[in-house]
Design a protein that fits this description.
Elements: H1 3-12, E1 16-19, E2 26-31, E3 34-40, E4 49-53, H2 56-65, E5 69-71, E6 80-84, H3 91-107, H4 111-117
């Protein structure tokens, strides 16, 4: 999955927005002002990467399963993973990771906000 495809996918989620809260080169995807993904551009020494919120046990499992999944970069490493977008994580799996991150953030919003947004889901 390319960074552009990941960005398009993240923005398809209900009420998702992006900005450059951390400056140029890092797109920050939010729902209700809460971050669910940070997409960093590629640099000369590394491919693009995305940092996603994750349930702690699942985070560990994904790190064991894929070499491209590592503890979150500059975030709480228990609750966040960084995924190097080098093509080694299947596209379907990466989409699930983005949706899981989004769902984790939505689950933490007040019930009234979830209802107002029409996002009340079983998560």
């Amino acid at each position: 999955m390319t960074p552009e495809e990941l960005s398009d996918f993240a923005l398809e989620l209900p009420e998702a927005v992006d900005d450059e809260a951390f400056g140029p080169g890092a797109a920050v995807f939010k729902v209700e002002q809460k971050v669910f993904a940070i997409l960093q551009d590629a640099s000369e020494d590394r491919p693009a990467q995305v940092t996603l919120k994750c349930e702690p046990d699942l985070a560990l499992h994904l790190r064991e399963q894929y070499a491209a999944v590592v503890p979150g970069y500059h975030v709480n490493k228990r609750h966040w993973n960084t995924v190097v977008l080098n093509g080694t994580v299947p596209v379907d799996e990466l989409r699930e990771m983005v949706e899981h991150s989004y769902d984790r953030v939505v689950a933490g919003l007040p019930k009234a906000v979830r209802e107002r947004l029409g996002l009340l889901r079983k998560v």
